[in-house]
Design goal:
Layout (H helix, E strand, L loop, with lengths): L2 E3 L4 H4 L2 E12 L5 H13 L5 H17 L8 E7 L5 E6 L6 E7 L3 H9 L3 E7 L2 E8 L2 E9 L11 H33 L4 E6 L1 H9 L8 E5 L9 H7 L1 H24 L4 E3 L1 H9 L3 E6 L7 E4 L4 E3 L8 E4 L3 H10 L3 E4 L11 E5 L2
Parallel strand pairs: 1-4, 6-9, 9-10, 12-16
Antiparallel strand pairs: 2-3, 2-5, 3-4, 6-7, 7-8, 11-17, 12-17, 13-14, 13-15
Helix pairs in contact: 5-6
Length: 361
Amino acid sequence: MTTRRVDRPQAVATLSDDLGVLSAYLTVRPGAADAARLAVDQQLGDLTGRTEVRERVRDLRPVFDRLLDPALPGRGRAVFAPLSRPGLLVAFTQLPLTTAAAVDDIAHLRPLVAAHSAGRPAGIAAVAAHGIRVVEVRLGLARDVGTTRYTAPGRYDGLRDGVQQDVRLRRVAEHVHHFLRGAGAHLATTAAERHWRHLVVTGDAELVAALAGGLPGGADPGVVRATHVAADGISADAVAALVAGELTDARRREDAALAGQARDAALAGGAGAYGIADVTGALAAGRVRHLLLDDATRWPGWRTADGRLWPAHETPPSPALGVADLSHRLVVQTYRQGGEVTVLPAAALAAAGGVAALLRW
């Protein structure tokens, strides 16, 4: 059986199967593998009323047994398997995933998107007088991605000891600031290449200001300044823990800004959709650039033969199939149209009934 690991939900959005796609999510914690196995068995058992589902689950049992191994990387694991053909896709995340299983003609991606939204990539530049340590945080996993060392200038000869020491200290300070300002451009390039949404610069306030000041104007991602000093030798996880509060606050501000942009644009009659009816209409027109939804609201509705989605309170103009929850189809259709999807906290989208969008036009 061919197993392919995927790193992004977009890679699963193209998966479909007339007999159905099995989507299964599980979380394995140290010392709790038996509890995870019991939860998975219960979720899968609820789906085995159909013969083809029962047979596919039986074939996949060795896969689930391997995925329940605590030694594998990442606490959260997801499996996506078409029923009518061999092969499957698997995804891992250090963040936990709600244990769940479903069979539909498309993959159910909302839990995976929620994890990717909560753990969207960010960079941390821990700056000190001897150099810069760069750590990436992605899906709850922190790892070192680079170190730039500072080399002090040579001695001044021919000066009295006290004078020479003062001159050297000034020269070193100027050299450090010049080094940090010059490192900003390289750091901005790294941030863009690795698709960081935020960059936290932390350390002594004066050094942080020098490095942040060297970043190109309008650099993306948003820069967050902190004053935690990362001691030499601590792990990447420990560096991430130092700035966890600042990074969480930055992500909350981004979440609120996204929801606010969609609301303001929709109210102004511009490139925004607010609420399930607006979003399904925009999606049918191929206008959704960035779908925003919370992680819990369910939207019952309809889908017609052309793939269009309709909320439950609207009447489709042609025969339609009932859909218990439109959220998974909203996600898949947005990805298939080349859009982006972010799961936001419920409070950010409460006024929209849990869903909004930024539109292409």
